[in-house]
Amino acid sequence: RGGGGGGALAEFWAGRYPKFLAKQSILEGGDFNRWKVVPAAMSIQLSVGSVFAWSMWNGPLTHSLGVIVPCSADWNIGSVVSVFSTTAVMMGCTTAVLGAWMERAGPRLVNTIAAVVFSSGSLLCGYGAMTHQLWALYLGY
User: Fold this and answer.
1) What pTM does this model have?
2) Contact 18, 9 (CB under 8 A)
3) Which of helix, strand or coil describes residue 64?
4) What is the pLDDT of residues 6-50, one digit of tens each?
5) Three-class SS of residue 2?
6) How far apart are CA 127 and CA 71, in angstroms?
7) Phi, psi of 51 (to 5 degrees)
8) Can you give the pLDDT at residue 3?
9) Cα torsion 59, 65, 66, 68: sign
10) What is d(CA 123, CA 96) in angstroms, rounded to the nearest whole number?
């Protein structure tokens, strides 16, 4: 290792920083409790599965302003359904690109960052639905 700049960032991308999320903290030590993995795995599966629940929001999003019947300012079904298509493509691309980093850095670090990004996206998507901003739905979901 050279003494060049970007040491903390290089350690982060290598999966060695922060220490408690490093891959070595899973592999080393005798105090590893496998039951702690179950809630983490369930959380990951729920977040991945929630992407496929988008179709239940199609109807409410196309009637968000008109409530019972659509009004002229409501989104049409084509613009709402495209949110899921964009999300499915992006999910596949990020999985392909970031899979190698998961192998190098370990699941704790990558899934912690994924949880922060997923939560931020959910908040942005909620903001978009609340304020009727289609760009926020696309960016957040």
Assistant:
1) 0.74
2) no
3) coil
4) 687 787 777 777 777 777 776 656 676 778 778 888 888 888 888
5) coil
6) 20
7) -60, -40
8) 45
9) positive
10) 25
